[in-house]
Amino acid sequence: MSGADIREFSRPMTGPALVPLIDAIEAGEKPVVAAIEGMALGGGLELALGCHYRIAHSKAQLGLPEVTLGLIPAAGGTQRLPRLIGFPAALDMIITGRRVSAGDALKLGIVDQVTERNAGEVAVAFARSVVDCPLVSRRLSTWPPLCPADLDNILQMALARAWQRGRGALAPVACVQAVQAARLPYSQGMQQEQKLMSMLFASPQARALQYCFFSQRAVGKWSMPNGACWDNSTARPIRKAAVIGLGTMGRGIAVCLVLAGIPVIAMETDEKQLEAARRVVMALLEKEVQKLAVGLHLGLIHFTLEQRYLREVDLVIEAVFEDLALKKQLFAELSSVCHPDTLLCTNTSQLDVDQLATATSRPDLVVGMHFFAPANKIKLLEVVFTSRSSPEAVATAMQLGKWLGKVSVAVANCPGFVGNRMLRPYVEQAGFLLEEGATPEQVDSALEHFGLAMGVFRMSDLSGLDVGWRVRKAAGLTGPGVPQGQLLQTQQGYRYSPLADLICQKGRLGQKTGCGWYLYEGPGGHMARPDPWVHAFLEEYRRVHGLQPRSIGQQEVLERCLFALINEGFRVLEDRIVMDPVALDVIYVLGYGWPAHTGGPMYYAGEVGLPRVLGRLEYYQRVHPDIPHLRPSALLRQLVAKGSPPIHKWMWHIEEGSSRL
Ligand SMILES: CCCCCCCC(=O)CC(=O)SCCNC(=O)CCNC(=O)[C@H](O)C(C)(C)COP(=O)(O)OP(=O)(O)OC[C@H]1O[C@@H](n2cnc3c(N)ncnc32)[C@H](O)[C@@H]1OP(=O)(O)O
Ligand SMILES: NC(=O)C1=CN([C@@H]2O[C@H](COP(=O)(O)OP(=O)(O)OC[C@H]3O[C@@H](n4cnc5c(N)ncnc54)[C@H](O)[C@@H]3O)[C@@H](O)[C@H]2O)C=CC1
Fold it and tell me: Which ranges carry the 3-hydroxyacyl-CoA dehydrogenase NAD binding domain (predicted)?
């Protein structure tokens, strides 16, 4: 039982209320044994906690995921669980919403017995064995709370953790407050639980998080402009895969494949690189084995320099340097080495997948599988299809992503695909704000206050500033031979901020060099500190270019960065790079640390109000006519003209045939 039907939350609810039902079961004179198979989540676990005993199958999973939907467990979960397993363990489960295995549930004391057999049959036998035992001590609501001496401290720390993890989300904080009420007699605690739930139930955050839940499932029902879609395309089985290039990304991808039980051929260019990769990959795998407490066949991965092993694989994922010529050459080689049916996938973050496809003998079997760093942790996968990708190839990549535990989103090929394409105007605005008077920490703090996991400059330092520098050089925006613009700097006719290039020229590439937009403890450090050198550098830059610095407020930072990103999102929709705006929200929430409690950038635009987004873009465009990314997209204008329809109707307003494919 996985809890409430979430779709009901936006409709008037019918049927008996859960709390009196659970109370009645608990108060009954007949012993009730919960037999748990599969899932006991949310209301499902709360019902089980109202039973007198709990027997779980070894494969069962238990949890209270309400917080991920913007809610708290409100059928007694916040009152019974701390009484059963103590405050610290209950707080952990309720604030994170994480699921625990039956084995862990036994250790925690949530279940009385774990079985490999049919849980129902075992529960019946168990019930017979306890039929004469008194039930008084089995009713959790009557248990006195297990208050340790340092409970105040535990609650304080939990509250701090909830604020920090939540990044503005209300539900984690409400979870702590509800659990805190478990120190009170049960009936008073329940009143507090109900009060907090009523506050959250109709909140915009809960609606946004529930939208995220359904969006992450909706993207599985992918379609392509040619009519191919998830229910008319068949995925191929992947019995063996290869990863070529075992750098930052390739290592993480190899780990994902092995954890999913897929044998992997892992390839590098030379023995030294191969050895370095082997050490890291094996260490990561061993850590996972310990964490998951599962048996994993570490022999599933074969490290090699020899291409002949590629003959046996069903799918290759290429993750070599971001260099089109190198990748094209490799794809041409793969065409002759691999079996003619082998799928050839690239992890490129922005190169033209169509061009790579043309370098092969099987363009229909070429797709992008764009993982996000760290690939073994981030749950997002962009599956990039070209005009020639076969439905079977797309279906296989989508299915493989799901098998690896990712949420896969099918997107058409275009520069930067979806995520990185929308990121460009956002990063660009941040650079302009520095020119106009802001500091990196002011910009980042506004964005982090909004709820982004990391501000733009901290994020750039983490990924490495040379990544974007290389892209800008390849695009002819900077580098030797490119004429430097006048005031304000311009390139290719538009405003261009060279600040990031200048920082790179100083050898400041971010965390890896110990400094970038911030200062770190040393190369590879993580603690970002404001850097007086950067402040002086910015002041000097403004002085040289005659820029009068002005004070820039939080609102302007948010509007310019976020609305520019959203505006590009509308352009992505116009170009039909995806078939549904929910895809953009899923990509941003799962791949870019966008706060889930705002639904994602496009949902957020709807909540702010499309006329407001349009109005502010028009305003900033008047002030900065040389920044094309601030020019409102045609789709945004059209939607506002049509009265700002809800997000699920946006695509109706795009003309048929506007697809870029
Ligand atoms: C003052 C008012 C007081 C109200 C008190 C109410 C108190 C409560 O009772 C509170 C609650 O329980 S809130 C609900 C808590 N439960 C959850 O969050 C579980 C959500 N579901 C899952 O984790 C996975 O779907 C699950 C693990 C279950 C299955 O995963 P799979 O990967 O096998 O399958 P999915 O692709 O995720 O799902 C299959 C289809 O089922 C839909 N769905 C799943 N859970 C749902 C749920 N709880 N409600 C509605 N629809 C749900 C899912 O959308 C998908 O649908 P389709 O895409 O159409 O196939
Ligand atoms: N680093 C990131 O955050 C992300 C990178 N990507 C993409 O993933 C790809 C790889 O990026 P990183 O892992 O960051 O690069 P990296 O520089 O860390 O690793 C590349 C690896 O490929 C190896 N290599 C080069 N040529 C090879 C060949 N012919 N055969 C076998 N191995 C070869 C190199 O020895 C190196 O170990 C790039 O296309 C990049 O754009 C995609 C998403 C995120």
Answer: 240-413
Does residue 574 sit in the same domain as residue 516? no
* 15-to-8, 21, 75 alpha-carbon distances in Å: 11, 11, 15
- Cα of 248 vs centre of ligand 2, distance in Å, is 7
Q: For residue range 203-239, what is the model confidence (pLDDT) as tens digits?
A: 999 999 999 999 999 999 999 988 999 999 999 999 9
Structure tokens at 292: 């998951």
Are 185 and 261 found together in one domain? no
Write the CATH number for 580.
1.10.1040.10
User: Which atom of ligand 1 lies closest to the CA of 97?
Assistant: 18
Q: Does the interface predicted TM-score (ipTM) exceed 0.95?
A: no
Q: Give the Å distance between the CA of 2 and the centre of ligand 1.
A: 6
What is the rounded CA–CA span in Å between residue 250 and residue 396?
Answer: 19
Which backbone phi and psi does 411 adopt, to 5 degrees? -135, 150
**What are residue 251's phi and psi, to 5 degrees?**
-65, -45
Tell me how far CA of residue 480 lies from CA of 353, 431, 469, 476, in angstroms.
28, 21, 13, 9
Distances (CA, A) of 17 to 269, 591, 660: 63, 38, 51
Residue with tokens 């490999």: 116
The domain containing residue 487 runs over which residues? 438-442+452-544
Instruction: Catalogue the active-site residues.
Output: 46, 66
Peptide bond into 134 cis (omega under 30): no
B/e letters for 304-328, b = 16+ CB within 10 Å, e = fewer, are eeebebbeebbbbbbbbebeeeebb
Task: Pick the residue whose CA is nearest to atom 14 on ligand 2.
Answer: 248
Per the CB < 8 A criterion, the answer to whether 468 and 460 are in contact is yes
Chain center to CA of 332: 33
The reply to whether 540 and 558 lie within a common domain is no
Q: Which long-range contacts (CB under 8 A, 24 or more apart) does 216-221 make?
A: 216/407, 216/586, 216/590, 218/580, 218/582, 219/407, 219/408, 219/409, 219/410, 219/580, 219/582, 219/583, 219/586, 220/398, 220/402, 220/407, 220/408
The answer on 463 and 337 residing in a single domain is no
> What is the distance in A from the centroid of ligand 2 to the CA of 376?
15
Closest-CA residue, ligand 2 atom 33, reads: 245
Q: Using the atom order of ligand 1, give the atom closest to the CA of residue 64.
A: 15
> Which two structure tokens, joined as six digits, stand for 407?
């949420």
Nearest-10 crossing angle of helices 171-180, 204-218:
120
Residues 105 and 254 in one domain: no
- 236 belongs to a structural domain: no
The edge-to-edge listing of strands for the beta sheet with 99-101 is: 39-41, 61-63, 99-101
Q: Do 475 and 328 lie in a common domain? A: no
Please give the C-alpha separations between residue 426 and each of 338, 455, 568, 638, in angstroms, as whole numbers. Answer: 40, 11, 9, 23
Cα separation of 522 and 515, whole Å? Answer: 8
Cα(465)–Cα(500) distance, integer angstroms: 8
CA 68, distance to chain mean position in Å, is: 13
Comparing CA positions, the residue from 452, 457, 463 lying closest to residue 594 is 452
Domain C-terminal end among 544, 579, 597 = 544
Distance CA 205, CA 71 (A): 9
Domain of 182: which CATH number? 3.90.226.10
What are the tens digits of pLDDT across the range 69-111? 999 999 999 999 999 999 999 999 999 999 999 999 999 999 9
